[in-house]
Amino acid sequence: MAASDQTLVCVKQVKQEVADEWDVSMPLPGDIIEGFSEHDVDDADESFVSVKTSSEFSCQLGKINQRVESIWIRVRRGDGLLKLQTCIVQQKVSVLRRKYTIQATTDHRHIADLADLTLKQCIELQGRYSLLSLLFTKFSLVLIVFLFSTFFFLYDSTLRFTTLT
């Protein structure tokens, strides 16, 4: 198998669709999950468990779900490595089958949909999120400037009106 064909555990999407409420402490689309630990540890600690597939990760989460409420995951995002604290959640796939995934500790609507994707696919997802974030930031700035200038225009008009009368 060529290196470009190798799959990684990746956040394909998140169930919380309001991207402006996302922050860097949450699992984001394109994040590559390298492993997890039940404790906040450094990367060299032997309690850190590597993951190779999303089904293996789901199975591992199911095994520890009864013991712990949250875990630390190590993700590759862009050129950096991050440790994020997440909660384990159960998703019912069918009556007989259960699937486990992660959600942000700060917002329980932010549930990660995991998949086995190539590095190229993960990078494309990260790029889409970055572009979306950039567009939202620029839109917010334009909106703030517009509201600010409208407020001062109205305030200035009111002052002129009161001085004329």
Set down the secondary structure blueprint.
Elements: E1 7-14, E2 32-37, E3 49-50, H1 54-64, E4 70-77, E5 80-92, E6 98-104, E7 112-118, H2 119-164
Antiparallel strand pairs: 1-7, 2-3, 2-4, 4-5, 5-6
Tag the structure with descriptive keywords.
2 helices; 31% strand; alpha+beta; 7 strands; 165 residues; 5-stranded antiparallel beta sheet; globular; single chain
- Taken from the alpha-carbon principal axes, the silhouette is globular
Mean of pLDDT: 80
Biggest sheet record: 5 strands, antiparallel
How many discrete structural domains?
1
Helix content: 25-40%
Strand order of the largest sheet: 3-2-4-5-6
Q: How many DSSP helices?
A: 2
User: In terms of per-residue confidence, which ranges show pLDDT below 50 for 5 or more consecutive residues?
Assistant: none
Kindly state the number of beta strands. Answer: 7
Question: Structural class, please?
Answer: alpha+beta
Q: What is the CA-CA span between the terminal residues?
A: 82 Å
Alpha-carbon Rg, integer = 22 Å
Beta fraction of the residues?
Answer: 25-35%
- Please trace the helix and strand order, writing H or E for each element: EEEHEEEEH
